[in-house]
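From the shared-data thread, chain only:
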Amino acid sequence: MSSAGKIPLRRLGKTDLMVTVMGFGGIPIQIVDEGVAIAAVQRCFDLGVNFYDTARGYSNSEERIGKALADRDYYIASKSGARDADGIYAHVGVSLTNLRRERIDVYQLHGVNDDQDLETVMAPGGAMDGLRKTKAEGKISHIGITGHRPETLMHAVERCDEFATVQVPFNLVENEILETLIPLCQKRDVGIIAMKPVGGGNFTNAPLAIKWCINQPISVAIPGMATPAEVEEDLAVAIGDVALSAGEQAACVQMKGELDQRTCRRCRYCEPCPNAVQIGMLLHGRSVVRRMGAARFREWGAAQIIASAEQCTECGTCITKCPYELPIPELIREVVAFYRTVPELSEPG
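Structure, as C-alpha cells:
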C-alpha cells in the first residue's frame, strides 16, 4: 500500500485490511466539475488516505474515482442496490470497469433498511447469492452491508458471518449504536464504516464532528468531500494527534445539544402518516440536495414529496411515534422553507 502518512491506521474487522481512520466518501464528487472531483480525490490520496467508498447509485462517482486513482494502490469499497443475484452480479462487473480494477476490496449490499429487505437479499436467488458468486470468482474480496436502521444491521450480522463490514450513519447526534451495533460488531469482528459523520452536512463545525467520530470505536469514517479545499480542511483533524482536547470536547457537547432535537435519524418509525405526508423523505431530502444536488432529489419524486407537506394537519401522531420525540411538524415547516430557496425545486417537471 501507499504510505498512510501521519493518518492513523485501523484494522477493518475480519478483512484484516489496515485502513486510514478517515476515508473518502464518494457522494459529493457527483455534483462538481470532473476536474475538481478528480483533483479532490487525488489530493486525498496524496495526503495519505487509503480507503475510498462509492456506489453504483452515485452516478459518475465510480468513474471519477477510477480515473483519479488509476494505477495507484488503495482500498476501494463500492455497493449496489440490486436485490437479486443476477442484478448485483452485473453491477459488480460495471463497478470493476468504472473503477479500472480487477478486484474490489469490499462490495456491499446497499441500503438494507428493514427486515423485509434483509429477507429479500438473503433469500435464495437474492443479492447475497450474487455476491457469493463474485467473491468465489475473485472479483471482490469481502462482502459488506449498509443501511440506516441499526436493528436491521444487527439482525444481518447475527444471521450471517459472511458480512465483513457494516456501513451505518454515525455522528455526534446519531450515536445510539455505541451501545448496540458497535459492541455486536466488535464481538463478531465486523468492521464499522461510519457514514454521515457530519450529519449529511447539517453540523456547523464539520472538521470537529469528524474528529469526534474518529475518536470512537469505529474502523473508518467516510465524510464526503467535493473539492481539494474541503479535503485539506477535513483531513487536518486526522493527521497527527487525533485526541480531542478539553475545549473540543466541550464544543462537541454544545454542538450535539443544538442538533439533538433537530435531527431526523431516518428510522421511519413516524410513518405511515395518517394524512399521507411523506415525512421521512421530506426530512431526508434536504441532505440529498446538499450532498447530491437538487436534480437527484427530483429524480426521487421531489415534487410529490414536497407537495405532501400540505396535507400535514399537525395532529401530533408522528411525535408520539418518534423515539427521539422530535418536533416533526415544526421540522417539516423548516425543511419546506429550505426547498423554496432552491430554484431547481421550483421549476416544472
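Strands lie at 9-11, 18-20, 24-25, 51-53, 75-80, 104-109, 140-146, 163-169, 191-195, 220-221.
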